[in-house]
Amino acid sequence: MRDELSVVASLFGDPGRAAILLSLMSGAALPAGELAAIANVAPQTASGHLARLVEGGLLQSEHQGRHRYYRLSSAEVADAIEALLVLTARPQSSRDAFNAQKRATGSLAYARTCYAHLAGWLGVHITRELELRGLLVSSGRKAYAVPPSGQDWFESLGVQVPSWEGSPEKLARRCLDWTERRHHLAGTLGVALFKRLHELHWVAPIPGSRAVRVTIEGKRRLWELLRLPIG
Questions:
Q1: What is the mean pLDDT of residues 113-121?
Q2: Confidence (pLDDT) at 67
Q3: Domains (ranges, CATH) in the chain?
Q4: How far is it, in rounded angstroms, from Cα 228 to Cα 129?
Q5: Residue among 29, 43, 210, 25 at smallest CA distance from 16
Q6: What is the model's pTM?
Q7: How many CA atoms lie less than 13 Å away from 155 in the CB half-sphere?
Q8: Whole-angstrom Cα distance, residue 55 to residue 125?
């Protein structure tokens, strides 16, 4: 077990590989050439990094035409990256400035995708309001349960609550947010909620980034539904 942990830790330890992993946190697949540019390394160097990440089980690849695309191999890998980011220390002198920017529109700290679910200030506060209203209930350290009132709320929004016969952690997972240090909703239900908010045009991804903005309609509706003070 110690040897396996050491191998995985070494994969995260290189700056180029770390840049590649962070760029794939949205859940999208990117081609090798684009990942080389993101990591600021030569294509041959990127190829070596990508091979190691695939071999280590952190990435999976697929061919499409003449190109090979890469994505994170699972939501568990995204969770591990978020957990490492939580442990990343910020100098005390920079924390006030960081907190002042948390709700700056367009920032990753304000709202972003985390492997196809909503994270950041917005994701955490939506989850918090759902908990306060009893629409989500903590079920152990890693999962949420959805009571009947919560199922009604999600379904009224057009979000189909998945069957709970499988693993609760995969269906509605408590994901520790690295900027807020509190939990947001992940898992199948978290992905379905973000997809629906996007379909309703309440939120919109910012091109070229994992950041997400809230539309005027989204601000109005999220205030009506959850009393979220979105400026």
A1: 91
A2: 83
A3: 2-73 (1.10.10.10), 92-226 (no CATH)
A4: 8
A5: 43
A6: 0.75
A7: 10
A8: 37
